[in-house]
Amino acid sequence: MYRLGWDERNGGNISLLLEEAEVADYLDPGTVIRHIPLMGVKEVDLDLSTLEGRIFLVTGTGKYFKNVLLDPETNLGIVRIAKGGKGVDLLWGFKDGGRPTSEFPAHMMSHAARLSVDLENRVVMHSHPTNLLAMNFVHELDEKSFTKDLWKMCTECVVVFPDGVGILPWMLCGTTEIGKATAKKMEEFRLVVWALHGVYAAGKSLDETFGLVETVEKAAKIYMLALGHPRVNELTDENMRELCDLFAVAPKSGYLED
Ligand code: 2HA
Ligand code: ZN
């Protein structure tokens, strides 16, 4: 994501749900390095109790993706949601006294929302993909027309994200409010655009989730390249229906003409 220019400086963050058995091969889940209260959130608003005891690998606040490979133990942490869901217990990482991403509330609420509709969800990924962001400035921020214009840019888009792209208006990031709004959208979409900021994506694995962002970003790139040029050819709703039938996926209801 850094290499592709989607995560400049400390932009972007990732959380990955881990099973206790997976981490037990590497660390003692009974040994807590330190407790980290959740910062910048209104405690009354944030209820992570459904995730109590769950373990996440998560990027650190203020950390740069480009440094993760050089020093994973400083730039990443493994945390367990503490009793009552109001903080986390650090099991590994954040070696310099660091803490989870400022977007931790949005990540955790999104995990809870995705798990409520898909027990296999493991990943939440936030980034600032260049062309998708550019498209935010030139396309109306309407979920149906935004999704359809992306679907039309690459033949396989409708198959990769048949559930479409949810969109939130510009909101202040790092807050419980944007976390709640993102989670609500995540009940319906695996991709949620934060207007004029970036995108949230969710999936069963790092590959699948990265692939979603990669595909939506590719479509946005083609949209931006073609913008302002006369449109001579276009993928039709009928083409996209045929694709959905072939790959046995259901496009978001009401988005394709019959
Ligand atoms: O972590 O991307 O939205 C930096 C961000 C905040
Ligand atoms: Zn961001």
Described by the principal axes of the CA atoms, the overall outline is: elongated
Specify the number of helices: 9
Instruction: Quote the distance from N terminus to C terminus.
Output: 38 Å
Structural class: alpha+beta
Q: Summarize model confidence as the mean pLDDT.
A: 95
Estimated helix fraction: 25-40%
User: Strand arrangement, largest sheet?
Assistant: 2-5-4-3-1-6-9-8-7
Low-confidence parts: none
What's the order of the H and E elements? Answer: EHEEHEEHEHHHEHEEHH
The Rg value, from CA coordinates, equals 19 Å
| Strand fraction | 15-25%
**Attached small molecules:** Dihydroxyacetone, zinc ion
**The biggest beta sheet, please?**
9 strands, mixed
Number of strands: 9
Describe the structure.
The chain has about 260 residues and is an alpha+beta fold. About 35% of the residues lie in helices and about 20% in strands. It has helices at about 20-25, 70-75, 105-115, 130-140, 145-150, 155-160, 175-185, 205-225, 235-245; strands at about 15-20, 35, 55-60, 75-80, 85-95, 125, 165-170, 190-195, 200-205. A nine-stranded mixed sheet has the order 2-5-4-3-1-6-9-8-7, sandwiched between helices. The model has no long low-confidence stretch (mean pLDDT about 95). The structure holds Dihydroxyacetone and zinc ion. Dihydroxyacetone binds near residues 10, 13, 101, 102 and 173. Zinc ion binds near residues 11, 173 and 198.
